[in-house]
């Protein structure tokens, strides 16, 4: 390391030149029928050198590996994690992924109940404070009747209003309700049709239908 940057670079270049020449002679010996020294020969010198990733053939030895600009070349960036395929991502999606098993551990439900009680207590306390403030100002208003029905709504809906005993609230039936007499008449008509279908002939039934048509029934 004390030789200086330029001297170290020159020596490293000379070593690589000799290694290339050595490789050419090994290839030529094999070509002439001799042993393959590239495969069976000693590689101590080669193992001491270090190649830059992506630049095969040139090696750095000893202090040359710590030269400015060379050290950074050997620092490999970590490879990015491999991206998962859609099928691999779908393997982790289950009921727990959508939160359906959040209450199975018995921890969340008591916390929710405690929070619900606290919110209800705060709402009641707020209502009491507002009511006391209105009473203090003499502005107590009659509580709104949630069961009351406006006449306009009953007319628009077309329902039937039925009144109970005096003092009871009024309720609206939003569908037509048949009377007892209408129910009895419908039962009688149904019974007649069953008897006609059971005992009357097809001709009689056709005549009956024709008579109903003429009478507008």
UniProtKB/TrEMBL annotation:
Keywords: Nucleus
Pfam families the record matches: Isy1
Organism: Neopipo cinnamomea
Biased composition (Basic and acidic residues): 157-168
Entry coiled-coil feature ranges: none
Location relative to the cell: Nucleus
Region (Disordered), start-end ranges: 134-172
Protein name in UniProt: ISY1 factor
Acidic residues: bias regions: 139-156
Gene behind the chain: Isy1
Listed GO CC annotations: nucleus
Biological process, per Gene Ontology: generation of catalytic spliceosome for second transesterification step
PANTHER family reported in the protein's UniProt record: PRE-MRNA-SPLICING FACTOR ISY1
SUPFAM superfamilies: ISY1 domain-like
Main localization (coarse): nucleus
Membership in a protein family: Belongs to the ISY1 family.
InterPro entries in the record: Helix_hairpin_bin_sf, Isy1, Isy1_sf
